[in-house]
Amino acid sequence: MQNVEHVIISCAGLGSRLGLNKPKCLVEIGGRALIDYQLDLLKDIPDIRIVVGFMEEELIEHVRSIHPNVTFIRNPDYRTTTNAYSLYLASAMLKEPFLIVDGDLLIDRQSFHDFVRHIDGSCSLIGITPSKTEEAVFVLLDDENRVTGFRRQPRTDYEWSGIAYLKDITIHREGKYVFSEIEPHLPVKAEVIKCFEIDTPEDMDVAIRGFKTLGY
Amino acid sequence: MNKKVAFCLDLDGTITREEILPLLARDLGLFEEMLALTEATIKGVIPFERSFKLRTMILNAIPLSRVQEIVSQVALSPLIVDFMQAHRENTFIVTGNLDVWLKSLVEKIGVRTFCSLADYKEDKLIGVREILNKGKAVEQLRAEGFEKIIAIGDGMGDVPMFEKSDYTIAYGGVHTPIKTLIELSNVVVFTEEALCRMLNTLL
């Protein structure tokens, strides 16, 4: 993965909709935690930054035992802040482009590698995924497969995945959502990534059913 | 560099791969005892000042020249020392350890050091004149015009330094940083490599 220097995984949130007493990235599917699969995909990136908040001690201990070289960025205000703020904390001093990944994703191995192969360092790249629920941020695409807009409704064929490679896109301290920070820079090239986001117990069921198709 | 940046690094267990005082105590056959006392101090079980005075009293049986010889051989973290030497004007050692003990080590690393001060006579330590409050070192640097002060440490003694700094990194390369310090930190890392990569992005 020589074309990506930095990756930020946001794992600070409470995951209240899932209702398990652990950070979502520690939820287990197929016998391993979500973060284990992600670290496996990202292991060749030199600078891995994980934003921690809710149950940070447990999360740090877990990750450290798998990948001691990870840098942990603390977001003690995780209860009252958004993912965008977590990404701001981790990216504020970075001058180079970086990959962002939501910590609550179970990502298909092959399609992630395809996504990374499409990163050429000269421009940003947004990961989109076939729409699965009504509660997503949907994307509008042009003929050249570039994202031209984000919207909550009506539904489109693809949704924002929570994965993107950002070049010259600053996440601001006051930024509310990650996609709204990307918005002023549209159109941006898109690539499809097969992944499951785990927000609710229903998402969890879907992910468990889809697990065997993900290449792990 | 936009702002004038200062990196304040704790010595024991950050720049060095081992704690210095237990190494010294080995000469007296008190390595384990000193290690236990040192670990209790890092964790904040015993206040640093009291523990430090006690430990120096135990160690004053060793001639200063012998102490310096041992200290100059202590194992260092090579990447951290490289970083410091590449940025001599912006890196500082901030340690509770005594000036007379550190002399040769500080010369070897070659950066400015804030430390505790000893009273001594010829080759013998008499007492501790002033124990460094690490927060004061940060205030001093700020008064000198450093605008962004970054602190790196692992133990209870680093708390005052973290409280006064702008950006803080708990470093667990040798010891797991104490919880109090983690709660005051922006970043937590566990390897020298991760620490130095971070420091380079803060320049």
Describe the overall structure.
The complex is a heterodimer of chains A (216) and B (203). In chain A, a hairpin with a 4-residue loop joins β9 and β10. Chain A is globular. Chain A is an alpha/beta fold and 216 residues long. Chain A has a single domain (6-208), classed as Spore Coat Polysaccharide Biosynthesis Protein SpsA, Chain A (Alpha-Beta Complex), CATH 3.90.550. Chain A contains six helices and 13 strands. The mean pLDDT of chain A is 94. Chain B has 203 residues and is an alpha/beta fold. Chain B has a domain at 5-18 and 75-201: Rossmann fold (3-Layer(aba) Sandwich). Helix content of chain B is 47%, strand content 21%. Chain B has helices at residues 11-15, 20-26, 31-42, 48-59, 64-72, 78-86, 99-109, 134-143, 159-164, 179-183, 192-201; strands at 5-9, 91-98, 113-121, 124-130, 148-153, 167-171, 187-189. In chain B, strands 4-3-2-1-5-6-7 form a seven-stranded mixed sheet, with helices on both faces. Chain B is globular and about 45 Å long. The chains are: A alpha/beta (216), B alpha/beta (203). The interface between A and B is medium-sized, with 19 and 16 residues.
